[in-house]
Amino acid sequence: MSVFRRPIHAGFVWVALAATFIAGCGHRAARVNAPLAPARIGSTETGVASWYGFPYDGRRAASGEIYDMRQLTAAHRRLPFQTWVEVTNLSNGKQVDVRINDRGPFVKGRILDLSQAAARDIDMLRAGTARVRLKVIPPPSTPLREPPREPVEITAVPAAAPTAPATEAPIAGAEPRVPVPSVTTTPARVPPAASYAVQAGAFSDSGRAESLRAVLADLFGEARVAPSSGRTPPLWRVIVGREMTREQAAELAIRVRREAGTAIVVPEPESSPNITPNTSPDSAPKH
Length: 287
Prior knowledge:
alpha+beta
């Protein structure tokens, strides 16, 4: 009888099935991503960094955390999560320590995506990008915290308590007074509530005003340039927000001050449309 017609033993079948199962499990195990090895302390990298804020603020990062643009964090394509990195802006020497908690940037030629707070610390918000040097450092002994918010003092004016009408005591022997008929008067017209906005700067250089407006519009959504009235040559005012109460404007001014360096609450300008000024050079900005 030929060997090819010999019946297959049942034990051989079970051995073959077991080998196939083991091989399959090994293949699946090989697909599991192994954790990244810790970064070597002191290792460096040089390249271009960018930053990101809205609309990613409040969304889930690649590490599973909720991204908070007010914290000192960053995104890197390869460094393990929770790695701490010292970032130096090579154009001005300013430094900031950040924690890696996201993946990115996915733009060719960039090595790091900083949070808005970290970008502000090394003065690269307006430029958008900067050439930086990264250095892996040990984690700090205490976590870095967000700087405390500036308190907003709002003085409440108490409403005057109603007073009872004065009564005259009767005088002995006096004639009774004749009642005077009441006169119905029309109540005075109450003026509409005042509205306010935030002024982030006033410039004699219209081009610089427009540059700041563009940055603040990306951050806060509502920003415009309005010329000051009654001044020749005019000052170009950068206005953020529209038709707010004084309390709302005061809260917005705190946020604008962190980005622009200065911000004051002002009455809502009469001319609300945005004006695109000429970009001819002029003198230094006047705040």
